[in-house]
Amino acid sequence: MSDREPVQIAAASAGAAFVLAGIAGFVPGLTTHVGSLSFAGHGSEARLLGVFQVSVLHNLLHLAFGCGILLAKTPSGARTFLLGGGFVYLALWLVGVIGVLDGLPANPADNWLHLVLGLALFGLLALTSREDLGDDLERDLGRGLPA
């Protein structure tokens, strides 16, 4: 049996998925037009799975999100990764929809994926960090039930 808590497993799994996505962004066949992969900006014609616009910077950011693997060594680190990552991806979605970040290529498919990823990271945090609220009502409600 593993001594790891569910939140640690979730964070490590999410981190591993980001590493795989970052690597895949450089692999011909998984990424179309990999020869036109630019460092940054909207000029990149490269598309991960033929759909998601990527650049070297975009792929490096996905690889950096692999830090979830390291942060998953402790429950608090895992929670921090899932919460922080959720906020980062929701911010990327908002920035993409508004269109104010020219350095990071993102097409509409990327924008919606960022929304899904942000919500998924929050969902993993909620699902794996829950405790049974009925186990100690006095602790959960303060001094006890209201009269």
Describe what this molecule looks like in 3D.
The protein has 147 residues and is mainly α. It is built from six helices and three strands; from the N terminus they run H-E-E-E-H-H-H-H-H. It has one domain (6-129). Strands 1-2-3 form a three-stranded antiparallel sheet. It is globular and about 45 Å long. The termini are far apart. The model has no long low-confidence stretch (mean pLDDT 84).
Number of helices: 6
Main sheet?
3 strands, antiparallel
Number of strands: 3
Q: Which whole number gives the mean pLDDT?
A: 84
Which outline best applies? globular
Describe the structure in brief.
This protein has 6 helices and 3 strands; from the N terminus they run H-E-E-E-H-H-H-H-H. With 147 residues, it is mainly alpha-helical. It has a 3-stranded antiparallel sheet with strand order 1-2-3.
Question: What's the SSE blueprint?
Answer:
Elements lengths: L5 H19 L6 E2 L14 E2 L3 E2 L2 H9 L2 H5 L3 H24 L9 H22 L7 H5 L6
Helix pairs in contact: 1-2, 1-4, 1-5, 4-5
Search tags:
mainly alpha, 6 helices, about 150 residues, 3 strands, about 55% helix, 3-stranded antiparallel sheet
